[in-house]
Amino acid sequence: MANLTYTQALILLGIPEEERDEFIVEHDVESMTKLEFPPCPDGDLNLL
User: Fold this and answer.
1) DSSP assignment, residue 16?
2) Is 1 part of any domain?
3) 23-48 as b/e, with b when 16 or more CB fall inside 10 Å?
4) Would the N or C end of the chain have less CB density within 10 A of its end CB?
């Protein structure tokens, strides 16, 4: 996961830790745009 952008990394941190590994396995996160990530529950990171 070393090829993530700063924004991608921040968005991934917004995904609950117990769900993050599964999400990474199921999605090609390195090629996803911020709009393709699920919305953050608290909404804070959606302002990126």
Assistant:
1) -
2) no
3) eeeeeebeeeeeeebeebeeeebeee
4) N
